[in-house]
User: What shape does this take?
Amino acid sequence: MASFVDRVVLHVSGGNGGNGCVSVHREKFKPLGGPDGGDGGNGGDVILRVDHQTTTLLDYHHAPHRHATNGGPGMGDWRGGKNGETLILPVPDGTVVKSKDGTVLADLVGEGAQYVAAAGGIGGLGNAALSSQKRRAPGFALLGIEGESSDIVLELKSIADIALVGFPSAGKSSLIAAMSAARPKIADYPFTTLVPNLGVVQAGDVRFTIADVPGLIEGASEGKGLGHHFLRHVERCAALVHVLDCGTLESDRDPLSDLAVIEAELEKYAVDMSYAGQDGDVVPLNHRPRLVALNKVDLPDGKDMADFVRPELESRGYQVFEVSATSHEGLRQLGFAMAGIVKAARDAVATAPPKVQPAVLRPRAVNESGFKIRREEKGLEPLFRVLGEKPERWVKQTDFTNEEAIGYLADRLAKLGVETELFKQGAKPGDTVVIGGDDGVVFDWEPTMMAGAELLASPRGTDIRFADIGDRPTRGQKREEQQERKDAKAAARAELEAERKAGIWTESVSRRRVAKPLKESGLDADNEF
Assistant: This one.
């Protein structure tokens, strides 16, 4: 079973927001108490936070799915729903958070550093919050929005000042055990170290951390041995210490050839330049300060080998130390040399002027509407896709089983200018309109859905604009019906005029003249005589 994990894929999701409540206040002698539905609670966030008590990502290897609690629904009597609890996930110091495509999202260094991996959804408003002078008693509430969901990659990069590199069984773990209180596993066979080890060393008034990574062999860049998998743990180190085995019994190995192999493998390792996104100054491993520790000089052959190769290494510019993890020979001098490099690196960071990124002000454009409409085609038919933070959020908050809620959405979209922009784009009645991306909501656009439903008399929870929506005529049909009525009236007038001219019915002038005074006197023209 794995005991150390330094890379995991974590599936996180924030809590969903609670739905708003639809309620009307009822009290004795107050039959019209008004709406009193409370708002839904917000969903909980998922937060990654550095904890020094956490040293591995093992817990997330066994349980990679993490979800924050949901917000509670709103209730009557103006009672809001309970907010979801924030889920705090402890991670080791030096954890780098990346997206699935490798983009660095956060570099968590230092106790308490945190990153919101998945934000919780906001709760929906109750009908009490939606009431206004025009809509006094809403019969609907807004739905809560789902929390964010994402797949992130956590990579652990140990926080160490000095890195020990070398062949397997070169004595790196023994050096850490001799110079610090760390007790890594030590055995007389290759690849004893399977996970990075850290140790704290005190040299004078300087305290620093050294890291030991599993041994490298020739071809590590191609995956041989343990490969370059653990070299990420030394990316933050200020200097490297080559631990060379002077007492090896292998005839084809010697300290100089071992050094050449390790240098070549370090040259092939590509340092992740993205994790130091704050300043971007990341030095490749083989370009950092390097010391050479000729180990196992307590052995007779080891001492002779160290004396033989030391002049050659010093001529190359290396600072060389003859050490022994068994007898502790040379460890004090090596520790103070490490401390000097660490102190110089820390002083350089402390005295360097802070790099301040210039503030970039991006004011909102005067004509910025907050949405855009993209014309597409689907099945040789036009399709208009509305994209924007506001309209997409409003659609998620709408209860499409409630006519009044749909009418409220239509009012909001019309006020935002979506309908006007659709006209400009050439949309016609009956065209398909999608609000959102691939999972957006699809509408058959009806431009007669104008704003102002709150002024129309309709029962609570309904919208008069949706009455018999399947049989409601469009503007074109209304124009056709009006033209038919005009044509029918014109045909009737023409028929009457034709009958009059044909003599089918006439009225003499003398009769009209006689009938008028008779009507004024109250007599009927038919009873004149």
